[in-house]
TrEMBL record:
<keyword id="KW-0121">Carboxypeptidase</keyword>
<comment type="similarity">
    <text>Belongs to the peptidase S13 family.</text>
</comment>
<dbReference type="InterPro" id="IPR012338">
    <property type="entry name" value="Beta-lactam/transpept-like"/>
</dbReference>
<keyword id="KW-0645">Protease</keyword>
<feature type="region of interest" description="Disordered">
    <location>
        <begin position="338"/>
        <end position="370"/>
    </location>
</feature>
<dbReference type="InterPro" id="IPR000667">
    <property type="entry name" value="Peptidase_S13"/>
</dbReference>
<protein>
    <submittedName>
        <fullName>D-alanyl-D-alanine carboxypeptidase</fullName>
        <ecNumber>3.4.16.4</ecNumber>
    </submittedName>
</protein>
<dbReference type="Pfam" id="PF02113">
    <property type="entry name" value="Peptidase_S13"/>
</dbReference>
<keyword id="KW-0378">Hydrolase</keyword>
<dbReference type="GO" id="GO:0009002">
    <property type="term" value="F:serine-type D-Ala-D-Ala carboxypeptidase activity"/>
</dbReference>
Length: 467
């Protein structure tokens, strides 16, 4: 029988590692991520080049009834359009109008305050709602919306005020009119897309504060009053809707996150409740009723006053949830193009530098000196940062992942989805380093069919060397 023998050699440092030596550690890597502007020398695309590139994808039957517009952001030149003046169901791309109106009207740090005051009767306290749907009763303020005011904090302030009361009144009178807009389907309340529009809610009316599409409450304002009563050790059955007396003692107050954060959340996650309540803030700022009609009229008026062509626009809400809303692709694209650097009035427009890529990949913020007085572009440019990133964030996080991967990280766009229409509006850096804005509107196809077809159009623009 053969026996294998192992002969041990005298110990050496290399022997411990099988004859290998340990290399010196590498120098630490220094990562300095930055966003670089698109090159000023990027060639301008031609209308013929864009039309040639888009021809096969816009002919897809999966788009159904289709309309769209594509613009060179630097010059404001419309490169391609199809039925762009035809009013179409915008679905959630209507939030582009609401965001633009808010940016043009309201301060970025505006917050909505919810107060509790003493009631007209000694046994009453009144929760005065001002239009904040983001209030939360979750411990540590960790509700659905980051930075939301805490109902638990509000209750603690009331307890510290040492007032004797057994009834909570909820004053929702700041809002007027109906709580559901024309063209809304009540099934969307249990479906998680909306709650009846009342002037205070917990976590946007969600029954599950952690669920984006959690079923919503049908009585969101009363829910807040009942939770406040519970926290104060009062009977929730004694909560009612009423009005606050004038000049009464304030017992507590909490505030929402600033407008800039609420706009971001509204656009990234396509939050209908936030869109409607922010629309009412625009109405209030312009002296209109805080109602569906007042908010829609306010948004339209603000845009018209800033030289946007509102021809063909019919809006019954500020979120795009109504199937009766109509907006032409031309208008949505004009708003995004203006934010990206081209003013609507050609007599006052100068060609700005191209935009910077987002997340190191796509198009981003305008690289230009801050003007002495705010231009329309400088006021709207924050909108570009609110748009979801293809394959990365919000309502685009699950798209451009298994299909149309060439647009992932490059396309930034607001989505829109209803059973009757799918839309996509945003911007992208093409292969030549030029920023293109686009609005794409599809109808008569189910979303699972039309959305990949829309994504294919945007991805084609990304891959376009269309000069």
């Amino acid at each position: 029988m053969a026996v294998a023998a192992v002969i041990l050699k005298p110990w050496t440092p290399e022997f411990r590692h099988g004859g290998l030596t340990i290399a010196a550690p590498p120098a630490p890597a220094i990562v300095s991520p930055e966003v670089e502007p698109a090159p000023d020398t990027a060639p301008a695309p031609s209308a013929a080049g864009v039309a040639t590139a888009l021809g096969p994808v816009v002919a897809s039957p999966d788009l159904g009834g289709f309309a769209g517009s594509v613009t060179d952001a630097a010059s404001g030149t419309v490169l391609w359009s199809e039925r762009a003046d035809e009013p179409r169901v915008p679905s959630s791309t209507a939030k582009i109008m609401t965001t633009a109106a808010a940016l043009l009207t309201l301060p970025a740090d505006q917050r909505v305050h919810t107060k509790v005051v003493a009631g007209s009767a000694p046994n009453e306290i009144v929760l005065v709602a001002a239009g904040d749907p983001t209030l939360t009763a979750q411990p540590g303020g960790q509700g659905y919306y980051p930075g939301a005011g805490s109902l638990l904090d509000l209750a603690a302030q009331v307890r510290n005020a040492d007032i004797r009361a057994d009834t909570v009144v909820v004053d929702t009178s700041v809002y007027s009119g109906q709580t559901m807009a024309r063209g809304w389907d009540p099934i969307d309340i249990p479906g998680g897309s909306i709650a009846p529009l009342e002037s205070v809610m917990l976590d946007g009316g969600r029954l599950d504060p952690a669920g984006e599409y959690s079923p919503r409450s049908g009585t969101p304002a009363l829910d807040v009053g009942r939770r406040l009563a519970t926290e104060l050790g009062l009977d929730p059955a004694k909560v009612r809707i009423g009005t606050a007396p004038q000049g009464t003692k304030r017992l507590g107050e909490v505030a929402s996150a600033p407008l800039r954060d609420r706009l971001r959340d509204m656009m990234v996650y396509s939050d209908n409740v936030l869109a409607e309540t922010i629309g009412r803030e625009v109405a209030q700022a312009t002296g209109r009723p805080m109602s569906f009609e007042g908010a829609a009229a306010a948004v339209a008026a603000v845009l018209a006053e800033n030289a946007f062509d509102m021809t063909g626009v019919t809006m019954f809400d500020c979120s795009g949830l109504s199937v009766d809303d109509r907006i032409p692709a031309r208008l949505l694209n004009q708003i995004i193009t203006t934010a990206a650097g081209s003013e609507p009035d050609p007599e006052t427009t100068t060609a700005p530098a191209p935009l910077a890529p987002p997340l190191g990949a796509g198009a981003g913020r305008q690289a230009q000196p801050e003007p002495a007085a705010a231009t329309l572009t400088s006021r709207l440019v924050p909108m570009l940062d609110y748009l979801p990133v293809a394959g990365g964030t919000g309502s685009l996080s699950s798209r451009y992942v298994t299909q149309n991967q060439g647009g992932a990280g490059w396309v930034r766009a607001k989505t829109g989805t209803l059973s009757v229409a799918s839309t996509l509006a945003g911007y992208v850096l093409d292969r030549d380093g030029r920023v293109l804005t686009f609005t794409l509107m599809s109808s008569d196809r189910p979303p699972e069919v039309s959305r990949p077809a829309l994504d294919a159009v945007a991805t084609t623009l990304r891959n376009c060397g269309c000069s």
